[in-house]
């Protein structure tokens, strides 16, 4: 008996990296899985239809149930076909893992319109598109009296939540948007019995993080636990996917074995001009009371946790090298 027996799941971007491990784990736990992936390069270019098929074949060879789908989540009718594939192949849909993502970085003055649009299209619009078609199906099932636990699991990134990174004016807001959308969809779909949560992986060794400084190499000893392996995210996705999971509207960061609940933006100190409107002069004086922070120091503090001690001056120098 698996914890996901009888559940039907879609995992987007499931041909490689984190999504591949999530698809395999969900299938091993008993779910029938649609392995969605057009097999594109890390920047979204190209395509290879064998990538999704290979993962589906691996799952079937291991005794699980899976079919491949190679539509892009960024394509509106393609996203509809992903949902239709689940219902057509397995008769229902209970779990959606929105995992697909691409990266195309560059400093603001260098980043092209296409690079901005494409990253937003896969991450933010792709999450919306798949969830939209799933929500239509969930609404139909609910209207037909077939209410059961259903679960959407989105994927964000620390770049967008905790430490938006320079050169990512597409990727960081796309991920922040996914986290915001998670709350919107949890509120809307909660009335249909659908739970919506978000994972935020961190320091997972995939081709997307190949150039990230400080990424530990894979352990050489066989059988040694690897906290940076893409498989570390899968049990958390499977937990959120399970019919017994009570969570909804949560954004969980996952780094190695640490699962951290995110609190999002929170209101800090307030200054007020009372019953009179502000003037620029009075505001300039009063604003000195606000405990503002330096963004270079904030990023240095955030990166120090992952990469070891780092000063604001070092961060500024790194950024300067990329902006020029
Ligand atoms: N690796 C990390 O440390 C890390 C950190 C934070 C967030 N993430 C997020 O985790 C997710 C998975 O990333 P990964 O590191 O496994 O990367 P990856 O490149 O190994 O896997 C991503 C997969 O998504 C697929 N994909 C790309 N565009 C698609 C589209 N339009 N439709 C469907 N599939 C598409 C790719 O073909 C690829 O197989 C991404 O959303 C990424 O932003 C990863």
What labels would you give this structure?
single chain; 324 residues; alpha/beta; Rossmann fold; 2 domains; 41% helix; binds nicotinamide-adenine-dinucleotide; oxidoreductase; Peroxisomal_Beta-Oxidation; NAD(P)-bd_dom_sf; SDR family NAD(P)-dependent oxidoreductase
Task: Tell me what you see in this structure.
- The chain is α/β, with parallel strands linked by helices and about 325 residues long.
- Strands 3-2-1-4-5-6-7-8 form an eight-stranded mixed β-sheet, with helices on both faces.
- α4 packs parallel to α6.
- The chain is globular.
- The N and C termini lie far apart (about 55 Å).
- The structure holds nicotinamide-adenine-dinucleotide.
- Nicotinamide-adenine-dinucleotide binds next to α1 and α4.
- Pfam families: adh_short.
């Amino acid at each position: 008996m698996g914890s996901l027996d009888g559940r039907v799941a879609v995992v987007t971007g499931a041909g490689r990296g984190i999504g591949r491990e999530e698809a395999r784990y969900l299938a091993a736990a008993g779910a029938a899985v649609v392995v969605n992936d057009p097999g594109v390069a890390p920047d979204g270019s190209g395509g290879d239809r064998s990538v999704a098929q290979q993962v589906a074949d691996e799952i079937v060879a291991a005794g699980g149930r899976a079919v491949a789908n190679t539509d892009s989540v960024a394509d509106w009718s393609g996203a509809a076909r992903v949902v239709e594939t689940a219902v057509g192949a397995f008769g229902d849909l209970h779990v959606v893992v929105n995992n697909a993502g691409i990266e195309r970085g560059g400093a603001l003055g260098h980043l092209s319109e296409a690079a901005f649009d494409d990253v937003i299209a896969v991450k933010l619009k792709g999450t919306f598109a798949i969830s939209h078609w799933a929500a239509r199906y969930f609404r139909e099932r609910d209207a037909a009296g077939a209410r059961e636990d259903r679960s959407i699991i989105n994927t964000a990134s620390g770049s967008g939540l905790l430490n938006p990174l320079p050169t990512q004016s597409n990727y960081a807001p796309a991920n922040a948007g996914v986290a915001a959308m998670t709350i919107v969809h949890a509120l809307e779909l909660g009335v249909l019995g659908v739970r919506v949560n978000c994972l935020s992986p961190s320091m997972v060794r995939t081709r997307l993080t190949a150039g990230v400084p400080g990424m530990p190499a894979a352990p050489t000893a066989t059988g040694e636990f690897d906290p940076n392996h893409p498989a570390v995210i899968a049990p958390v996705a499977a937990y959120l996917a399970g019919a017994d999971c009570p969570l909804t509207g949560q954004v969980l960061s996952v780094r190695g074995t640490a699962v951290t609940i995110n609190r999002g933006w929170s209101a800090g100190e307030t200054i007020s001009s009372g019953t009179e409107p502000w003037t620029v002069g009075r505001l300039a004086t009063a604003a000195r009371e606000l405990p503002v922070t330096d963004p270079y120091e904030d990023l240095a503090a955030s990166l120090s946790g992952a990469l070891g001690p780092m000063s604001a001056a070092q961060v500024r120098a790194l950024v300067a090298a990329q902006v020029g």
